[in-house]
Task: structure prediction
Amino acid sequence: MTAISAGQTTNAITRVQFEDAITRTVNNRKRIYNASFALSVRWERDNTDASTDTDNFQAILSTLNLDQAEVMVLSEQDGTPGWTFQDKIRRMFQRATMASGKSIVFVHYAGHGEVRSGQLFAVEGRPNRRINLQRLIDSVVAGDVQDFDIGDTDTVFVLDCCYSHVATRAYDPTTRVVEILAACDDSNPIALTPPRNTLTGKLRGEIARRKHDSHQSVILADVMATIRANSTVVKPTHIVKLGVSICFRFTGVMRIDPSTLAPSLRAVFSVRIVENMTREQLERFLTWIETLPLGYTIELDAVYPTTSTLLIFQSAYTVFVNLAGYPGVTFISEVTSTNRRKYLKQEQRQEDRSSTLKENIPFSRRPKP
Result:
């Protein structure tokens, strides 16, 4: 991927980079894992019924045909729960990197969460012991967990706690994936707890539904987009910090290609391209995006040429979350309806035609008010 030079603006992306990012998003269905590792973490002294979400998480892994998670209950008697947690994580990544082929690691946390100095902490409650989850996430993004190189291991964090949305994406075109499934967002940072439908519970239901409906595969970003579209109280947040959202293929005879289905949630966003795109380049780009599968459709709503090029897009939310964090990509809004702008002139013409017909009707034939 072409890097942006020092002389170019840092809040823009090159045309080649942008097209490559879209291509990586659409072609992310080829990853095969030879080994999977998972850890579900909760506090012993927990009043959120987190054990229910541990069971939900195990069911998710089973549906995806992955190995069951090791359950870690942080003891009330443990004087250094942070060190205990970090040691467990380090040993899990060691096993993942030593396994043959490609490995994936799942880290699931259910319980209380809080933000301190802009960082996410897992919190016991009383007596308020805490673990810095943000530090772990940042170390996994850096590829170095307690001075141990995690190599090409993909990682998924499922954070079913309050304020879990605070993590942000680090732009890095890499073959390795780090993505976060968080229970809440800025508008309502308070996560639900059992028996209400938590993030882990929603993930379990939505992934199982897709398998039951004979989908060939499931992409985590698409699952989260559907959950977000259907959530009325607390909306989850999905972040791809590195790479592209992970896709899992279901086993057995599956008839439906999910890429042929219309998205349940769409996003409007702007992209600032470093260079001023020529008419030929823009036409070639439009021709290309028209060939994308229905589940990855991208519509160009506006083009503003300056010394650079500002483009306004509407796309499947799944596409946007894989682009979010790249330089020059700015979120505008999520939508469930189409762009009305293209229909306004048509609606106006229909109104004008109706008005003209009404005026031409003889007075005696006009309907009584």
Observations:
- Residues 1-9 have pLDDT under 50 and may be disordered.
- The domain at 35-256 is CATH 3.40.50.1460 (Rossmann fold).
- The longest strand covers residues 35-43.
- The two ends are 67 Å apart (CA to CA).
